[in-house]
Amino acid sequence: MTMLPPPEVREELQVRAFALIAAYLRGDLEALDALVDDDDAGELLVMVTEILTGALLKLVRADELEMQVNGWLDERAARLTG
C-alpha cells in the first residue's frame, strides 16, 4: 500500500487533480499534458481517483457503486473470454 504524501504535497496534488478534471471536462488536452509530470503521475492518479470516487459516492451508495463497477468488470471479462 502506498503511503500518503505529506500534507503540503497532498494539497498540491489535490489542486492539480482538480485542475486535471476541469481540463478534461473542457476537452483541453494541452492543459492535461502540462499538468501531468511523469515523476508524480502515480500519486496524481490516486488523487484524481479519490476525488472522483468521492463525487460518485455523493450520488450513489457505496454498495451500489461497487455493484456497478463489478458488473462492468464481469461484462468485460466475459467479452474477453467469449
Kindly list the characteristics that best describe this protein.
single chain, mainly alpha, 4 helices, globular
List the helices and strands and how they pair.
Blueprint (H helix, E strand, L loop, with lengths): L6 H20 L2 H7 L5 H19 L2 H20 L1
Helix pairs in contact: 1-2, 1-3
Short description:
With 82 residues, this protein is an all-alpha fold. It has helices at residues 7-26, 29-35, 41-59, 62-81.
Structure description:
The structure is a single chain. The protein has 82 residues and is mostly helical. The chain has one domain (7-81). The chain is built from 4 helices and no strands. The chain has helices at residues 7-26, 29-35, 41-59, 62-81. Helix 1 (7-26) runs antiparallel to helix 2 (29-35) and helix 1 crosses helix 3. The longest helix has 20 residues, at 7-26. The chain starts with 6 loop residues before the first helix and ends with a helix. The model has no long low-confidence stretch (mean pLDDT 91).
Report helical residue fraction.
Answer: over 70%
Portion in strands? under 5%
Structural class: mainly alpha
Largest sheet: none
Number of domains: 1
- Provide the low-confidence segments as ranges: none
Radius of gyration, CA atoms, in whole angstroms: 16 Å
